[in-house]
Design goal:
The chain is mainly beta. The chain contains no helices and seven strands.
């Protein structure tokens, strides 16, 4: 699926960066999208276990799947999300199941 390991702002601006893309949002809200260096365009096999990592530092958020970068957002706009919320989004529709083997949160500012 194109939505695996991309960046979506729920209740806000929607899809910010699709898998394989880097987005820079300027202070005036102007968006510039480019191909994310080192990213894979191949869709992951979602029937298998994967390691998903999100690194948020200041105004930059990076997503990784199995160590490979998938999305990067640098947001200098006044609309940037503030705070620290972590969640898994499940859309309405056909019944589905999400399995998580483990989760770890680590503060990077210490």
């Amino acid at each position: 699926s194109n939505y695996v390991a991309m960046c979506y702002e729920e209740g806000g601006r929607g899809i910010l960066a699709e898998r394989g893309s880097a987005l820079v949002i300027a202070a005036d809200g102007t968006r510039t999208t480019s191909v994310l260096e080192g990213a894979s365009a191949a869709a992951p096999d979602i029937t298998q276990w994967h390691t998903y990592r999100v690194v948020a530092r200041g105004n930059t958020v990076e997503h990784f799947l199995d160590g490979v970068p998938t999305a990067k957002i640098t947001d200098d706009s006044n609309e940037q999300a503030k705070g620290a919320h972590f969640g898994i989004q499940i859309h309405a529709g056909e019944p589905m199941e999400v399995r998580m083997r483990s989760a770890r949160l680590k503060r990077l500012d210490r």
